[in-house]
Amino acid sequence: MSKEPSGREPIGEDARIDALEERLKAAREREDQRNRPQVRGVDENERLGHRVLAELLGGIGGGALIGWVIDLLLSNEKPWGLLVMMFMGIIVAFRNIIRISNRRPD
User: Fold this and answer.
1) Using CB atoms within 10 A of its CB, is residue 65 exposed (0-12), middle (13-18) or buried (19+)?
2) Minimal CA–CA distance to 85: which of 101, 74, 100?
3) Mean pLDDT for all residues in the chain
């Protein structure tokens, strides 16, 4: 048998290998954290957009509903109550949207 060392014998402790293992471990942890699904919160701009949309839909829908009820109560065949109240709902919705947009940020 040959006394020459084979390439598969265990290598003694080396500070460079330990440092490399630590860096690899830190890199794996960073990569795992980066790839983890992020829980995204709703930011202020998205909230504002939702509020504007709600004002617009609520104004139109609320006005149309009130106008429809008025037309039913008056047993009117023409939808003037519906049209007038829906138009008023649009005006109120735009007034509220303008108020929201003129508000100063906190």
Assistant:
1) middle
2) 74
3) 85
